[in-house]
Amino acid sequence: MDLVGGCRAFVSVSEFGGFTGGAAAIGIPQPVASRRIAALEKHLGERLFDRSTHRAQLTPFGRSMLPWAQRLVNLADAMERDADRARLRPIAVAVPTTCRRRDLAELDSEARAHELFLQFRPARPAQRFELVRGGEVRVALTAAPSDEATWTVPLGVASAVSLRNAAVHLEALRIGRAAKAPKRRVWIQPEDDVPHIRDPLMHLRDRLGLQPAQVSVAESLTSAAATCFGSADLLLCSAAQAEEFGLHWHRLVGISLDRGYEITADTGDEAERFRVKLWNPVARCLGGGAR
User: Fold this and answer.
1) Domains and CATH numbers, the chain
2) The pTM is what?
């Protein structure tokens, strides 16, 4: 039986002294209140009310049970209030430092439509994984190889000046020893300093005979972009990032690089909610398109 529902009807009818008023106070029809109390009496094995009078008079057994019923109803109400607060408590989410504030705000707004309230913590790839593993956040957008990822973002190179070709061959960065022009470099930003992006690019650098410094990891995205503004250097980035910095974006020839992202969460349910309900706004935050 519905023990809480029966106790709620029992308490309300006893407070109002009648089945009609007690039922109305808790928003149920009078016959429903009568059935719930009858079921509670059957469950407890004794009458709670003396039905021989016009008013709902408590029996001696009913007076003994009333304090217990009140406590049970109060506990149920407290549990529901705590459940509401827990449902509205923000979910801490570790996100890439490359996510723009507007995109995060749109993600937060769409999450609220699904009763999810988010609190963002920007961090680098390795830090995001450690944050969720250490329990400091409940969800993290973690780096993953593209074939294992839920979201992928194609990478190319961006330059301050528009190049003649839409695609860039890295061997074009190789110049003779006698050349006086400074060697052009490709800067890897911290978000892409992960094995499945960094290592293939470094291997291509070595195979093409470029100098080690010509493909380097930058201290920050800001410093890498600043260097590209004042030189012919190239920034490894997504098309969305190139647009954000006002740079010209080009595909890379001879290598295909993608940022991959997966959800790491302390529960499978939370991970699934992000994948199913928030796929599009998460994709925008990461620099990809909506499906």
Assistant:
1) 3-85 (1.10.10.10), 90-150+260-286 (3.40.190.10), 156-256 (3.40.190)
2) 0.70
